[in-house]
Structures are given as C-alpha cells and as structure tokens.
Amino acid sequence: MPHVGSSSAQADPFAPSLPVILTVRRVKRENPEMVTLFLGRLDEEDAAAQGLNLDAFQPGQFFMVWLPRLDEKPYALSSLDSRSLSMTVQRRGPFSTRLAELKRGAQVGLRGPFGRGFWEVQRHERSSHVALVGGGCGTAVLAPLAERLPRATFVQGARTASVLLYRRRLPQQVIFTDDGSAGRKGFPTDWLEERAQAGRLEMVYTCGPEPMMRAVVAACRRFGIGCQVSMERYMKCGIGVCGQCDCDGWRVCVEGPTFSLEELANMPSFGRLRRDRTGRCIDVATADQCRSGPLMPAP
Asked: In angstroms, rounded to a whole number, what is the distance separating the alpha carbons of residues 284 and 275?
C-alpha cells in the first residue's frame, strides 16, 4: 500500500484514455547515448479530458509514451514548464532507438501521469541538508525535483565524462566518474557518507542503476537518514494488472515507482533481481539498465 502522506492522489488508472498526440519542437543531443525531446503542450483542459493531465504531474511519476505502429513504453519527464515538456531518452532497444531518432515535427502520443512520485517534498524546500543522487539516465528523473528543492545538493555519478547529463542546466552539481575523467574519481556514495558523518544530511532522493541505489539505501539506513528511491522495472500495462513489474509483491507501476526505506526493507529483490520482458528473473547487475551510470562494486 502507498506510504501515508505519499503522492497517491492519482488519476484513476482504469479511466478510459487514449494517447494524446504531441509534436516534437526541438531535439537536443545530451551525449553520445542520450537525447532530450522537447514536446509542445496542448490546451490543458482538452488534454486532461483525453487522459493527459500534465498539471497533476509530480516528479518521479511516469507517462506512457506511444509511437504509432510500434509500441507504448513508460518514460519519466525530465522537464515541464508552461509551454513544453521534455523526455531524456537513452538508446537501449528498438523503441528507445526509434524515439531517440525522432526529428522536429514528429508526433508521439502521451497519457498519464501514472504511479507514485516523490512525496512530502515541500517539507524540504528550504533545507540545504538534502541530496539528490542520480546515476546515468536516472539523473533525468531527478532533474524536475531539483527545481522544487533549490537548496538541495545534486550529486551525479557516471562511468565517464562523455555520458554526464545536464552540466549546464545543473552547474553546481557534484560529479563523480568511475574513471576520474570529470569531477571526483569514485562513486556518489563517497560524498554521501562524508556528508552523513558530518551530520549534514536529513533526506536523500535517488534514481539510477539499482546497484548504486542499493548502496545509497544502505548508507541512509546506517546513518538514520530518510530516503526515497525511484525504481525502474520492465512495465507493460502501467496500471497494475499484468504483474510484469512485480517486485516481491509490490507493483512498481502502481505502488511505486517511488519507495521509502521502510517499504524497501520488505523487498529483498531490490538491488538483486528483476524480471526481463519474458517475465524471467535476472540479476540486476547484468540487466541493460542505466548503463551510463556508475558501475558500483558488488556489496
């Protein structure tokens, strides 16, 4: 069940909806592996009536993205303002590759938002003892949250300098790379432990490769720091019916994708196992997930 006080006031997932067609206004190449698609917004009342309620969006939620004659997949927004919204896409399979190849003027369908985003964010709006820890494509999920937490420290981990995200958008971020080609050599958890030992952290939000998030969660538990994790699982229906995204009885598309430390304590598969598109359980370390993120050592 959703955590008390969570952003669980979602639209009815079973309400009839069809993808609302939006037009690509701009494409920005972020690095060799990722692009950001900027889509123009429509009249909000008309869009919401059809199943796209952008005004209800909370960072950490996701939208179902439809490419005609191909498929529909879940994606998070990397930005949202009064005129446009954006998605940062990493090439991983046929769908994401086609999405990343779209040009200005192309059309895509969106519906949502779905799932549970980060909650009680307003409690930390004025605090400087908050960290957003992102890795790889998970950095995009946290970017809208950074705009709501202006005093928080954004920490990004990546394999190497060439795959970092948003260096201009988030100029004050703390950077870690596996090879030391940018920022500090090491992992975001190095910074996290330093700040925690100094008593300068009260809340952490994280999204990225699961081994990295598992290390973040372990550090937060050790130091008694609050933490919310945005988890990725292979999703098909997006409304909790098919069970494809199940994690130890939790439907990630409905009860998540954001979870608390307390909830993760009841999810032993977190950081270890996930289902592939056939439903087979595989090791998260071998899954093709956020591959630009830091390659955390096994615990």
From this structure: 9
Task: Give the CA-trace dihedral at 240, 51, 137, 216, to 10 degrees.
Answer: -50
Q: Is the pLDDT of residue 7 over 80?
A: no
Report, at the CATH architecture level, how domain 20-114 is classified.
Answer: Beta Barrel (2.40)
Peptide bond preceding 32: is omega within 30 degrees of 0, i.e. cis? no
Which one-letter amino acid corresponds to residue 26?
A: R
Q: How far apart are CA 290 and CA 298, in angstroms?
A: 16
Instruction: Evaluate if pTM is beyond 0.90.
Output: yes
Q: What is the mean pLDDT of residues 2-31?
A: 74
Q: Where in the chain is the domain with CATH 2.40.30.10?
A: 20-114
Q: What is the pLDDT of residue 51?
A: 87
> Would the pLDDT of 203 be above 80?
yes
For domain 121-283, give the fold.
Answer: Rossmann fold (3.40.50)
Asked whether the beta carbons of 235 and 247 are under 8 A apart, the reply is no
Tokens standing for 37?
Answer: 């698609």
Q: What's the token pair of residue 267? A: 């999810």
